[in-house]
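Example record used in the benchmark description.
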Amino acid sequence: MKSLKTNQNTETFPMNQFNKDIIAALSSDKDITLNEVLRRQIEVAANQFLQNELTAVLGYEPHTRIDRSKDDVNYRNGTYTRTIDTKYGEINLTIPRDRLNKFQNALFPPYMRRN
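Model output (structure tokens):
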């Protein structure tokens, strides 16, 4: 009887920038802390979520040509910044706006300053 060789998967976990930052924070004498790494990651994820949420409300991606002949067409209308104090530190948010003021983000209620 032939012996069956087992195929051992030697792939390692893919290293993205977040993983590299965590390893650097835990293994070095740098001034960066694990809280700072988490704060940065939360900030990036929250800002990306807000952009994706506005895209869902508008129904089209940024820089996409749309039919402007309709009266109810809504457009992106810049951004404003907010700072939210979390247990990981302050995160700076770039909140997108729309022309018809229909966008109300679900993640951060108006006037929220602490979480």
